[in-house]
Write a structure and sequence with these properties.
31% of the residues lie in helices and 10% in strands. The chain contains 3 helices and 4 strands. Strands 1-4 form a two-stranded antiparallel ribbon. It has a two-stranded antiparallel sheet with strand order 2-3. It is an enzyme of class 2 (transferase).
């Protein structure tokens, strides 16, 4: 998990929001010693560290409250998703049991 956190820091240091951190986007190398964060298909580059993203995107089980509420967000939203991922790794279930984003 530390490798994923370092990967996220590397991305955030370059002002990139991943916006879809989830277990399906974590990959192991063949020898299972290295974890990689993948699928940057909906990633967004911010022009400044103070800029906020506004497009609601990602996987609902991992989306931060501000995205679910259609509010502007920054890299802290990826940190929220990483927390959801950690919960899933420890418990083998998603942290929230909801039918849709309204729940």
């Amino acid at each position: 998990f530390v490798q994923l956190c370092l990967a996220m820091k590397h991305v955030h240091d370059r002002k990139v929001l991943h916006r879809d951190i989830k277990s399906q986007n974590v990959f192991l190398t063949q020898n299972r010693k290295v974890m990689k964060l993948g699928d940057f298909g909906i990633a967004r580059v911010l022009n400044a560290t103070t800029e906020l993203a506004r497009t609601a995107c990602g996987t609902p089980y991992y989306m931060s409250p501000e995205i679910c509420d259609n509010k502007p967000y920054n890299d802290k939203s990826d940190v929220w998703s990483m927390g959801c991922l950690l919960y899933e790794l420890v418990t083998l279930k998603c942290p929230f049991d909801a039918r849709d984003m309204r729940d």
